[in-house]
Predict the 3D structure of the following.
Amino acid sequence: MDDRSNRHGEDIADTRLRELDPDKPGLNHIWLSSDTIWTQASEPESSLPHDPEREGSTSASSAKCFLESVIDEYVVVICASIRVEYKGRASSVADVSQRIVITKPDGTLIIHEDTKHRPLNWQPPGTTFHLSVRDGPILILEAFRKKDRETVTIWFEKVFYIAASRVTPGQFRFSGSESEMVDRVIRDPGLVEEGFTPQKREFRTRYGSVDLIGKDREGNLFVLEFKRGQAQLASTSQLDRYVKYFIEIERLEGPPKAERGEERRTKEYLRTTDRKRGHRESRIRGGIVAPTITAEALTLLKKLGYEFFRLEPRSNP
């Protein structure tokens, strides 16, 4: 960093905020604290004649060098006018527009536009990054994923800024989840109904994992599906698949034909439960545990012979 860059960085640190005209399009507003190192892109010497192509090439080469020094260890955020092309299981092209590009040391790539939370394009961890300067002053980033042979190529027509930051993981606590709701019912089964005895959580079936199964006071098998938000029709259908799965496995004589691991475990569990004898269907109950349920879902739930139990998720402490 030359003296001019140092002086400029000190000016930014002192004033903290540079006022820019918000009515002028294309300007990027950046606030830098005194803890931030500010680096200016290298420029051609003033004694040389003005050459836009050479200046663009110098800027692209400078950006490439900077990115190569940080992309493997820092979370990098780039604001630039870019064109994006994806090739893999399908293909797509996004024309030149100002977008945000984010790379992470684990190989994650995210490209965002100005609306919505879903990225325009992305690559998961494990992606390999390759930087080059081609076609004159164009910086190119290729993100290649070997597993599915997918490549996202970004052409940087103009780079406005690049920010590299060391980001470290911290402790994360999440309250009000479905898992936390299951924990509460295990600690206090009366939240569902008196006499309920929880037995197994996340019980695997061919249709997914049942949140909680147990016995009611009469020894009937009780299958419970938990939702932290409003239960929908899909929740009722999911519960119905779980209950019918248990009925199907209980009716099988001898080992299941498919010899699936989850079916063997289910049959073994059903054999060990001490339930009253009677009609097989009447001994397997189903219920949804959620704060609310839609009218359509509740109608279907009752039609299928299942029950709804109201339980509010806990808020963050």
